[in-house]
Amino acid sequence: MPLVNTGELITSASTARSAVAAFNVITLEHVEAVIAGAESAQSPVVLQVSENAVKFRYGRLLPLAHAAVAAAERAAVPVALHLDHVQSDDLLRQAPGAGFGSVMYDAARLPYADNLSATRAAADWAHSQGLWIEAELGQVGGKDGRPPLDAHAPGARTDPDQARDFVTGTGVDALAVAVGSVHAMTTRTARLDHALLKQLSAALAVPLVLHGSSGVPDDGLVEAVAGGIAKVNVGTALNVAMTGAIREFLAAHPEAVDSRKYLSVGREAMADEVRRIIGVLSRTSA
């Protein structure tokens, strides 16, 4: 079926107090696994390509983007395409022509006033192109190998009053909030600040996004959705599943050289993880 707009999926989920899973993809195997897992779960899904993934692919956006579009158009469930953690204005401007319906513009590393100004300019341009735009306030941490901030450090959590002003001042369509999750976690031990999340949900009129969700236990994800999260970003969990499956296969088959043999195992493991996470998000909080 045709690509759907991320904003349509997230707005619908937010209204229903549910959440859409958004998975970061790096290879064609990632793309195929996410779609296969979503089809198995009979659920819409968001394919995300990050700026770091583009850098990995020699700085070229179109090869992976075109592959994702082609796969999505043949999917049996609604699929949206999202450009994630964009810091480069040049990359941002490639999004519409590459098939993306949404972007996450990441200026959270900047001081608040600069973040607001840069994000407002990005949002104005994105909206002129028909793009739905997400931003981040507070620091989720763990990106590009950087350690997470201490829980009590300034900027480590999103302040509800500042978030309200930020959303009003920038005009973004969704906000990624810092409530205790960390990017690139390989253990599921993150403890979310659910009280803060409820305050943010009450303060803001736009859907909320959780980054670093791979490190959050299942019950924490369920409670986060009940608390107002409408988009759940997952990346590392897929890489853990893929790498673990490939390692196990190669250990059992040291003679293997045909990459299709182990890539298919890795792809299947990722599809299983996609299906599992979507199942978790479909649960309701007790």
TrEMBL record:
GO terms for biological process: carbohydrate metabolic process. Binds 2 Zn(2+) ions per subunit. One is catalytic and the other provides a structural contribution. Zn(2+) 1 binds at H85, H183, H211. Its cofactor is Zn(2+). Transmembrane segments: none annotated. GO terms for molecular function: aldehyde-lyase activity; zinc ion binding. InterPro entries: Aldolase_TIM, Class_II_FBP_aldolase, FBA_II. The active site is at D84 (proton donor). Zn(2+) 2 binds at D106, E136. Keywords: Metal-binding, Zinc. Pfam families: F_bP_aldolase (PF01116). This is Fructose-bisphosphate aldolase. It comes from Streptomyces monashensis.
